[in-house]
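user: can you give me the structure for this one chain? tokens are fine.
assistant: on it. calling the predictor now.
[tool input]
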Amino acid sequence: MIVRKLDSLGRITVPSEMRRVLRLKEGDGVAIFMFGKEVSFRKYSDACCFCGSKEDVKMLKKEFFCKKCIEKLTEEDTPPAS
């Protein structure tokens, strides 16, 4: 745990170790989530978490998925031929 104090504008500095792990650099977007009384953040990406596509993308459970990957994930598995 690393403790940081808020400045007068409500800002905090993200420690360099965390920026390095998240590959955050100046100008990158950061997505901020609130769960009850907890706040979480991550590097923002609006691309599909599987294929990287930015077309027909929707957010589900904090992740972005494109229409094609959603279709692949929801296809019924066909049992192997015996």
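assistant: here you go. The helical segments are 16-22, 67-74. The beta strands are 30-35, 38-43, 57-60, 63-66.
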